[in-house]
Design brief:
single chain; 233 residues; Rossmann fold; 7-stranded mixed beta sheet; 11 strands; 27% helix; 25% strand; cytoplasm; methyltransferase
């Protein structure tokens, strides 16, 4: 899923990937994400697809407040962190601000990545928002009983489509997590013919539309929903 390392020197921006940390600015917050390529490979570096989808969530004005959101294959956690920050909803009473209308964000990856993922999430969220973000193990196709079916408003994934042997399990997971109203947002760089194969498999079960293309990073964002309807956010 998110733990298979690429070979060093393979032209994937090696210098940035090997940096111990990278810094971004989203949702009026500075986010400093730790990286650890040598220990966890692709699960512990920030990929362009996560940056592009994070920017799309912010600039596109997608309202995540009071929504249930899950990220698949979260890796460093950047996208889930941004979703939590953007989903902040504040109800001000006489004495204090209460964050009970904020998004509920579940940030998932395989067991080996969870400790690293959790550390990034905790380090980059204000204390009042930390209870709104839960880091949880999810191996596609295996841990689905731990997640209520069809309970999420948004399913997010950044650069999770690259291992063909995981495609069937990823589709099974998406079907389990989604209701008719759930919006899937997948951000990816189309590198190989197998990536097109996954999109075809996805279209066999969901309505799929390309909604954004970042030409500077060669990253596509696809929206998918069950059924044949096309809805605006």
């Amino acid at each position: 899923m998110a733990l298979v390392p690429y070979e060093e020197g393979a032209g994937w921006g090696v210098r940035q990937l090997h940096s111990p940390s990278v810094t971004y600015r989203f949702a009026s917050h500075t986010i400093r994400v730790q990286q650890d390529w040598r220990r966890l490979g692709v699960a512990a570096v920030v990929w362009d697809a996560a940056v592009v989808l994070s920017a799309y969530l912010e600039i596109g004005g997608i309202d995540l407040r009071d929504r249930s959101v899950i990220e698949l294959g979260a890796g460093t956690g950047l996208l889930g962190i941004v979703a939590t920050l953007l989903g902040k909803g504040v109800f001000v009473c006489l004495f204090k601000a209460i964050y009970n209308h904020s998004a509920r964000v579940t940030i998932t990856d395989r067991a080996a990545a969870l400790e690293f993922l959790e550390s990034n999430v905790q380090a980059n969220l204000p204390s009042e928002l930390r209870p709104r973000a839960v880091v949880k193990e999810l191996t596609w196709g295996r841990d689905l009983g731990n997640f209520p079916p069809g309970a999420f408003d948004f399913v997010l994934g950044a650069d999770i489509v690259y291992l063909e042997e995981t495609f069937a399990e990823l589709l099974q997971t998406l079907e389990h997590l989604c209701s008719e109203q759930t919006v899937i947002l997948l951000s990816c760089r189309i590198r190989y013919e197998r990536d097109h194969k996954f999109l075809k498999m996805l279209r066999d079960r969901f309505s799929v539309y390309e909604i954004h293309y970042d030409s500077s990073k060669d990253v596509h964002i696809y929206k998918a929903q069950k059924g044949s309807h096309k809805e605006d956010f």
